[in-house]
Amino acid sequence: MAEGIILLIVFAFGACVGSFLNVVVYRLPAGMSIIYPPSHCPKCSHPLGITENIPIFGWLWLKGKCRWCKASISPRYPLVEATTAFLFSLIYHQFGFSWLTLTYLLLVSWLIPLALIDIDTMTLPNSLTQSGLIVGLIWQGLVGLADNGINGFAYHLFLAILGGVVGIWLFDIIGIVGSLLLGKPAMGGGDPKLAAMIGVWLGWLGILLTAFLACAYGTIVGITAIALKLIQRQQPIPFGPFLVLACITVILWGDRLINSYLEYMGI
Q1: What is the pLDDT of residues 206-252, one digit of tens each?
Q2: pLDDT tens across 169-216, in order?
Q3: Where do the structural domains in the chain lie, given as residue ranges?
Q4: pLDDT digits 0-9 by tens, 100-137
Q5: Which residues lie below 8 Å from residue 17, measured CB to CB, with a gap of 6+?
Q6: Cα-Cα-Cα-Cα dihedral of 259, 241, 19, 7, to 10°?
Q7: Cα-atom radius of gyration of the chain, to the nearest Å?
């Protein structure tokens, strides 16, 4: 019973975070403040009331339309809120009250807007990748400090820096080799920065697995989309969402995947 109540609280908290992430996704690429003005209809600029601003249910209450000008409100807003809430609940359910839970909740809060902005604009804002990397370094140092004092601080910070270096070098190499093979830029400048950010949070082994899964996801989706004629053969597609999906996969099932691989190889 108590566990169910806690999960409900985590779900509600995740939905509130998702509501804020919607603001980030909409305003950051437009160069707007993510704090002011308060939430309002993008069509008529009327401020949203308390009931209209409730995550998920506010959209349902309004039936997907502004109460004042009747303009349609994208269903992506409640979907992002629900997805964030679901991921928060899943992470808590798997890791319970722990440093890992807080670590992954913070990381997911950066990953979701990065994926959506990349889908919308084909860019990964430096303000998000760089802030995510810096917060990751600080957080890993604090976790190490709480775990084993100054020695833990130095060790965790070293692993975080190593993960970031592996991430950016790996994707720089992939981009260079891909560009040579294709005769044109194969990867945007933001992808290595996102990989570095993920490496800081997950470590060198985590970013290696993330990179492998992201390439696999991207290949499968790309081939399928071309086969279904949803995109042209030479049409660029954003890679950030595949990195984000792969990172979330590693967060939830990375240890199992690594252990299964080692067992299969007899190691």
Answers
A1: 999 999 999 999 999 989 998 888 888 778 889 999 999 999 999 99
A2: 999 888 888 777 766 666 778 999 999 999 999 999 999 999 999 999
A3: 1-97, 100-267
A4: 999 999 999 999 999 999 999 999 999 999 999 999 99
A5: 84, 88, 109
A6: -10
A7: 20
